[in-house]
Design brief:
seven-stranded mixed beta sheet, Rossmann fold, 7 strands, binds magnesium ion, binds adenosine-5'-triphosphate, single chain
C-alpha cells in the first residue's frame, strides 16, 4: 500500500496534481475520509492537474458536476445520497467513460463502481497533517504509485 503525508492545503493540492498525471479516460477515484479531511481539496488538485480551469468545489447539493479539462472530469459527492439504487440510477461510471470520475465518500458506493478503481483514504493526524492511503483495486494493483508516496 502506498501512503503520503501532506502538511498543508497547498501540499494536498500538489499531491492531487501528481495523481492527475496517472489518470486517463475511464479512471475512477474514490475519496474517503471524515468531514473536512480534505477530499474536496485533493479533488481540486486533480482537477488542476487535468487542466480544469475553474476550481473544483464541493458539489454537495447537486451530487455531481461535470468539468472540462484535458479530459472531462465528473466530480461527485454522495454524502447526501439516500440509497445505493439512487447511485446506480445516476450511472456516473458510464457518464464518465471518456473522462475521470472523482467521488467523495466514494467508499460507500465502492460496490457500485467498476472493480478497476483507486480508493484514496484521507486521515487527519494529531498535528492536523493529512495522511493519504492509496488502496488500488483491479488494474490499479499493477500500477506504480511510487511517485505519490512521501
Ligand atoms: N494538509 C491538509 N490537507 C488538506 N486540507 C487541509 C490540510 N490542512 C488543513 N486543511 C483544511 O481542511 C479542510 C479540508 O476541507 P475539504 O473541503 O477539502 O474536506 P472534505 O473532506 O471535502 O470535507 P467534506 O466531508 O465536508 O466534503 C480545508 O479547510 C483545508 O484548508
Ligand atoms: Mg468535500
Amino acid at each position: 500500500m502506498s501512503e503520503a503525508t501532506t502538511a498543508s492545503p497547498a501540499e494536498t493540492l500538489a499531491l492531487g496534481r501528481h495523481l492527475a498525471a496517472l489518470l486517463g479516460a475511464g479512471d475512477v477515484v474514490l475519496l474517503a475520509g471524515r468531514l473536512g479531511a480534505g477530499k474536496t481539496l485533493f479533488a481540486a488538485g486533480i482537477g488542476e492537474g487535468l487542466g480544469v480551469e475553474e476550481q473544483l468545489t464541493s458539489p454537495s447539493f447537486i451530487l455531481a458536476r461535470a468539468h472540462e479539462g484535458l479530459l472531462p472530469v465528473i466530480h461527485a459527492d454522495v454524502y447526501r445520497l439516500g440509497t445505493s439504487a439512487e447511485f446506480e440510477d445516476l450511472d456516473l461510471p458510464e457518464q464518465a467513460r471518456e473522462g475521470v470520475l472523482l467521488i467523495e465518500w466514494g467508499d460507500v458506493v465502492a460496490h457500485g463502481v467498476p472493480e478497476d478503481h483507486l480508493l484514496v483514504e484521507i486521515e487527519i493526524t494529531a498535528d492536523e497533517s493529512r495522511r493519504f492511503r492509496f488502496v488500488p483495486s483491479g488494474k490499479w494493483e499493477g500500477k506504480d504509485l511510487g511517485g505519490l508516496t512521501q
